Amino acid sequence: MNMIRTRKITGDLSWVGGCDRRLALFENIFPIPRGVSYNSYLLLDEKTVLFDSVDQSVTRAFLENIASVLDGRALDYIVVNHMEPDHCSALQELFVRYPAAVVVGNAKTFGMIEQFYHALPEDRRLLVKEGDTLCSGRHQLKFFTAPMVHWPEVMVCFDETDGILFSADAFGSFGAMAGNLFADELAIEQEWLPDMRRYYSNIVGKYGAQVQALFKKLAGLSIRTICPLHGPIWRTEREIAWLLEKYTRWSTYEPEEKTVLIASASVYGNTEAAAGRLAMELADRGVKNIAMYDLSATHFSYLISEMFRCSHLVLSSPTYNGKVFPLMQHLLDDMRELNVQNRTVALIENGSWAPMSGKLMAAALASMKNMTVLDPCITLKSSMKQEQEEQIAALAEQIAAQLQ
Asked: What is the CA angle 264-270-276, rounded to 5?
C-alpha cells in the first residue's frame, strides 16, 4: 500500500515525517486529544541529508516517504539532533536500509545510540562539536549543542545557506498536522497556542536557563525558517518574531497575561464554592480571561500550562487527613519540579475541625523561586459564611488592584 505523504519546505528540502492521531498520552503521561506530529526533514543536495527520525508508530509511512523523495538516490547522512525514542525509533531500520549512511551526532548522541541499539562502526560516525560545520554541497550546516533542551545530548543544526534552523524539541507543540505544515497556514493563536504552551511548560519548562543559553548561541544568526521536531514549521518574519517572544517569556518565567488561574480541589463542593465566589468577585472588578479548574477533573499539565500564562494563582484546597488534599499536593510537587516561579499566589483552605492546608501550601510555595503569597489565607470551616464572603471580596479587590 502506498502511504507516501511528503511536502516541500524549500526547493530541495522536504518534510518526510508522520502524525499519530490515535496516541492518547504523550510520554505515557500527557493527554494529547489532538494527537502529535513527528517531524523529519530530507535535504537533496550533492549529498543527501536526513534530519532526525520518528516514533515507531509512524515508521512505515516515514520509510516510504524517504524512499519516495530519494527516488533511487543513496542516503548519505543522518543527522541526529535528539535521541529521545519518539525521534529515534526508526534509526535501527534506517541503519539496515541505508548501510552506507553516516550518522552525524555529538559524543553523547553516540553513547545513547549504543544504549538504545548498538555501537556504530567508526566509518559510520561523524562526530561534531560546538560550532562544527558540514558541507553537503550547496548547503553549509553548522551545529550548536543545546544540553538539557530537554535532554543532555540535544543539539540544533543551522543551515547557513537557506537560514533554516533544525531546532530539535525547541519550538515544538502537541497536535497532529493536517497538510498545513506552516504556521502561516494555521490559526496559531486560536488553535495552536494552548498546545504550544502546554508542550513547552511541561516538557521544556524546567529548563528555562538552558533555553536562554541556546538563545545566546543563536543570536546574530539570520534565521528565516524554524523546523522543530513536533508541530508547525515557522517561515515568516512576523511568525518567527511572535514565536521567539513567547519563548522568551516562557523561558524567563514571565507571565503572558495579567490575569488569574484558580486551581480548586474540593471533596463536597464547599471549597470549590468559595473559589467560584472569588472568580465572580474578580470578574465584577474587570478581570478578564480568568481560568478555573477542578483538580479532580483536569490533568495537571493543563494547570502547569495556565500557570505559565497567568500572573496570579489561587490555590484552593481542603485539609485531608491533616494534610493538603492529595491532588493539590501533586500539583504543588509538579510546580516545584517544573520550575514555576515569579507568580503571586492567594490561598483558600478548608477544614471541618483542624484547617491545615493553607499553612502546608504556603510552606510548599516557599520552596519555589520568587513566589509572593498574599495574606491572609482565607479559612473555611466546612462551608462559607458571611465572614468569608467579605474576606473573598477583599481578596478580589487586592488582586484586581495589582492587575491594573
From this structure: 50
Query: Residue 1 is which amino acid?
Result: M
C-alpha distances in Å from residue 232, one per residue of 7, 99, 190, 298: 13, 31, 14, 26
Quote the CA–CA distance of 14 and 233 in Å, as a whole number.
12
User: β-pairing, 41-44 with 13-15?
Assistant: antiparallel
The Cα 347–Cα 252 span in angstroms is 25
Question: Which cell goes with 373?
Answer: 503569597
* pTM for this prediction: 0.96
Q: How far is CA 113 from the centre of its chain?
A: 24
C-alpha span between 4 and 69 (Å, rounded):
9
Alpha carbon distance 314, 275 (integer Å):
8
Asked if residue 380 lies in contact with residue 350, where contact means CB atoms within 8 angstroms, the answer is: yes
Contacts of 378 (CB under 8 A, 6+ apart): 274, 346, 347, 348, 349, 358, 388, 391, 392, 395
Give 153-203 pLDDT, tens digit per residue: 999 999 999 999 999 999 999 999 999 999 999 999 999 999 999 999 999
Taking Cα atoms as reference points, which of 313, 311, 243 lies closest to residue 278? 313
Cβ-contact 321, 289 below 8 angstroms: no
How do residues 18-63 score in pLDDT, each as one tens digit?
A: 999 999 999 999 999 999 999 999 999 999 999 999 999 999 999 9
What gap in Å lies between CA 194 and CA 200, rounded to an integer? 10
